[in-house]
Amino acid sequence: MRHDAFWLTASDAAPLLVNRWLGDSAPRAVLMLSHGMAEHSARYARFAEALVRAGYALYAHDQRGHGKTAQRGVLGHYAVQGGWQRVIDDLANLNQHIRQHHPDTPIVLVGHSMGSYIGQAYLIQRSAEVQGAILSGSNYQPLGLYRAAAAIARFERWRQGPTGRSALIEFLSFGSFNKAFKPNRTAFDWLSRDPDEVDKYIADPLCGFRCTNQLWIDLLEGLQQITPTANLAKIDHDLPLLVVGGERDPVSQGKRLEDLAAALRRAGLRRVELKIYPGARHELLNETNRDEVTVDLVDWLGRVLGNRATESAA
């Protein structure tokens, strides 16, 4: 396996750090990963190794305000304005780069948590650019909830400024996630049942930080865009799409993944599959059953892309 990192210039000239994992031969498909909030792409190295063993490649960029990309920006902050569309366009730029280096190779989007929301917005605008999508640790809730949360975020922006970091928003979002896992060992028990993985997250200076008020506004406005059925209906109805998550993930509580899959089907998507893992929490690829999850994802890739060599993924 070959791993390297490079800087990709976004459409607005912003630099994005991209991690790339390749095998020795041409990949069956390239996975394009959009990671979650307050984490970064290098955390997917283990998943990348399994993909490469199965004949695939993985490209994953550090989103704006995250990972090493934040070294040339502001940690936890997309942009002064237009941040939501910028992170969508970043995926399009990465897709174009992949297509230049792997012409005629299928590209599959993988979006986790925040990255799954960005991924859905990307699919609404440009689903013809990919041949499949996996949405992990995602969510689906009423528009009214997002509107109310956005009002709070706008108040906090008025009170603290766009780059302020609100303890109230933190409490109302991540602060509530650990309640189901009392007594808590850490503030991040909700991520995984594996204490070693939780400790790695806590020890990583590029994980677990508080995002800015403006990023929250961008995200919540984006969630309002991807929720209506009429917008989801803009996604290619024949696109293979897999929704996965943990039964005990407080972001989705399992049920909201069912709601997301149902919303996509109502929107006309004909190839939506849903897989919920009993007992699992938010980060499936860092969970105690991560090998099972990885094999399942590689098996799904084989089925929808027409190749079935999955036994080497474990």
Automatic annotation (TrEMBL):
Gene3D superfamilies: alpha/beta hydrolase (3.40.50.1820). Keywords: Hydrolase. Its EC number is 3.1.1.23. GO terms for molecular function: monoacylglycerol lipase activity. It holds the Pfam family Hydrolase_4. Residues 26-289 form the Serine aminopeptidase S33 domain. Signal peptide: none annotated. It is an enzyme of class 3 (hydrolase). InterPro entries: AB_hydrolase_fold, Hydrolase_4, MAG_DAG_Lipase, UCP037442_abhydr. This is Monoacylglycerol lipase.
